[in-house]
Amino acid sequence: METWRERISHFLFPAESDTWLAVLRLGLGLQVILYALSLQNDWTYLLTGTGNGLIGRNLGEAMLSLESHFVPRLGWLVTLGASFGLREETVLSIAWIFLLGAGCGLVIGLLCRSAAILAWFLHLCAAESGGFVSYGVDNFMTIGLFYLMLSPLPDRYSLDWQLRELGLKNPQLLGFWRRVLQLHLCVIYFFSGFTKCLGSGWWDGSNLWRALISPPSNVIAPELLVRWKYLFPVAGVFICILETGYPFLIWGRRTRKIWLICICGMHIAIGLTMGMYLFALVMIVLNAAAFGPSFVFHQSEPNRIRRAEPAMID
Amino acid sequence: MREKPVCFAWFVLHFLLITTFSCRETLWVVAQGQTIFPSFFNSFSQKAGTVMDAALGQHLAASNPTRQALTTYLHIAGIEKGYGYFAPNVPASYKVVFELHYPDGSVEYQLPHVHSAAAGLRLACLLDEIARTRHDTLREYLVKMLASSIWRDHPDVTAIRAVFGSISLPNINEFEHGKRESYEFLYAYDFSRSDKATELETP
Which one of A14, B46, B162, B173 has the fewest beta carbons within 10 angstroms of its own beta carbon? Predict the structure, then answer.
């Protein structure tokens, strides 16, 4: 009989292949590219500190300094650039180009670790300096890139692995980082769902209606939406159940597939009906990496590994 | 595997922080009285939230090294916020309209603008922040900065009035009976050219 220490160890350090890591790397690489391209024309306007932008980043960085002086920010890069005689706009443009380059590096798997660290750092700088114009997508990108940067890169689908003929990474370490991502998603969905359950508007569908007609997320005309009014209460309750039930039903073999499909379907719907494409993509990527490869790819290797050292819940 | 003890210790600390922050946000939501819970839960949630704040070092001085280290870690890991998106209810949307006054007496209306839909979502977040803040000075400063961005595009304007309001949305029944979205006045700020010259330039 297993002791509790062995049980925890088996749960936290299951042997895994690196397929999930390839999904995370590719997905977040694509996410970083789309993030950079979506802000291409507004990057300097949103993040400048010289008074030529929307509100400037100086106030956001000053407020960040009240919390901590050590959180990365674009001001550091601008100061560094100034010591080399570079103007602020030039530094911001270089930061944008490097962020795009890091995204491309992640997608093709070239210099994976460096690309992951660079993408995490530059995105974090932008998200923290532009704190007043940041939202959920920035939070989830930081979470995803933080785990990616710490995970045992490169995976065997990357260009790095092909070029350098590296050996396979420790399967237990791969399993640990996947478990961390899985558990974090469980916490995210549970609290998101539970807090929704506390609002009366999710039980009668009125919150869904409000979410869909509130600017700037009012992609679909209300005249069209009102034809589906009887579906709103059902959809509202369904979302509450889907999110709150996630940490309980995503683990079981029988329910995982359906829960994952439903959650990804929900995020696709959010992306299409509310115009939050980047938010939808990052959530789908995190879910696909955390719970996807085991049933999407049906590859033989992870199954072999699992048979050798079974995970506690699978 | 040599790294197991280190990984395990990090895991415990990391998830303790994630769950504590998530619980704290949920308690904050309950304490605000925005939920279906009876009102006697509100004061309990407030007290429990205060205890969690203390546990997270939020009652320490801002310059305290422990608090600084904790805050830095929370930010770099992206776990400094809870996950109550659109919860417990969908928050109100906000709008700011700038009334531009020209030397010849003419008046023009402008909205703050960005170049892409992705940045448009971020602008909406900024308006939410402006509405949410409890500090009038900060709110006025943020609106002033927005006005400043409009002023750059219209340098001949002599004065700007910024009108900040919430968007009042109809429910389904009201919409079916012909009611449409309307604006509820919240704040108005007047900025003159002298303001622009002296105050808008410096944070």
Answer: B173
Largest CA distance in chain B: 78
**Residues of chain B contacting residue A64, judged by C-beta atoms under 8 Å apart:** 75
> Is there a domain that residue B88 lies in?
no
Q: What is the ipTM of this complex?
A: 0.91
Q: Are residues B67 and B104 in the same domain?
A: no
- One DSSP character per residue, A99-167 reads HHHHHHHHHHTSSHHHHHHHHHHHHHHHHHHTGGG--HHHHHHHHHHHHHHHS-PPPTTSHHHHHHTPP
Examine the domain organization and report whether B25 and B103 are in the same domain: no
Same domain for B172 and B120: yes
CB contact under 8 A, A135 and B19: no
Residue B149 sits in which domain range?
93-200
Quote the CA–CA distance of A79 and A75 in Å, as a whole number. 6
Is B99 in the same domain as B190? yes
**Is B87 within a domain?**
no
Residues B42 and B106 in one domain: no
* Cβ count near A163 (within 10 Å): 11
CB A68 within 8 A of CB B72: yes
Do A68 and B73 contact (CB within 8 A), yes or no?
Answer: no
- The per-residue pLDDT for range B62-77, each reduced to its tens digit, is 889 999 999 999 999 9
Q: pTM above 0.95?
A: no
Residues of A in contact with B114 (CB under 8 A): 42, 45-46, 54
